[in-house]
From TrEMBL:
The chain crosses the membrane at residues 42-60, 66-85, 105-126, 138-156, 163-182. The lineage of its organism: Bacteria, Bacillati, Bacillota, Bacilli, Bacillales. Residues 46-158 form the VTT domain. Pfam families: VTT_dom. The keyword Nucleotide-binding does not apply. It comes from Sediminibacillus albus. This is Uncharacterized membrane protein YdjX, TVP38/TMEM64 family, SNARE-associated domain. The keyword Transmembrane helix applies. Keywords: Membrane, Transmembrane, Transmembrane helix.
Length: 195
């Protein structure tokens, strides 16, 4: 058990040990990170969490490149899964109907929505599939659409590593308050539409 006399020293030791683990894993660490992107939907991890982790563990440039590769591969596998399993496609289509009703959106709007952390990643992938009709077109727009989230979220992850422990804690508290506030607004909207 580690006992810390000063919190700053413990946080530095923790960051150093994580960095040592990543450096010690060698070529396996980036490959595992890409696999985490592929398993992300099964682990119920949001895109933003995995991309931020890339910024924390690999730094901005390498984390952004790895997140781009992982998100692009995830888009490819989603395309294949939706075409192999029609029930899966029907489930995502039902979600699309609930969230967007009959609204039509453009490819550029999908790319902008990809940056928003609370919009379902595969829901937007379904929109791209319906707009492009071919795997080549889908992958082109999908790859373009994951550049911005990969860069922004990874940069955010890199920035977090440079916060002091109390600044990081304060930031997390602010995010939790905003999250609770948005949940409350959503609940009020549901109650007003039902009432």
């Amino acid at each position: 058990m580690i006992v810390c006399k000063e919190r700053g020293i413990c946080v530095e030791n923790f960051n150093d040990s994580i960095q040592s683990l990543i450096e010690g894993a060698g070529w396996l660490a980036p490959a595992l990170f890409i696999v985490i992107h592929l398993l992300r939907p099964l682990l119920f991890l949001p895109v933003i969490v995995v991309c931020i982790a890339g910024g924390v563990f690999f730094g901005f440039v390498e984390g952004a490149v790895l997140s781009f590769i992982g998100l692009s591969l995830m888009s490819f596998f989603f395309y294949k899964l939706v075409n192999i399993f029609p029930k899966f496609r029907e489930g995502v289509a039902r979600l699309k109907q609930k969230v967007f009703q009959d609204r039509r959106i453009t490819v550029s709007q999908v790319m902008i929505l990809r940056v928003m952390p609370f919009i379902h990643f595969h829901l937007l992938s379904l929109y791209l599939m319906e707009m492009t009709k071919t795997l080549k077109g889908y992958m082109y727009y999908s790859a373009l659409g994951v550049i911005l989230p990969a860069v922004l979220y990874t940069a955010f992850g890199q920035a977090i590593t440079e916060f002091s422990w109390y600044a990081a804690g304060l930031f997390m508290i602010i995010l939790l308050v905003v999250y609770a506030f948005l949940g409350r607004i959503h609940q009020m909207n549901i109650e007003s539409s039902n009432g």
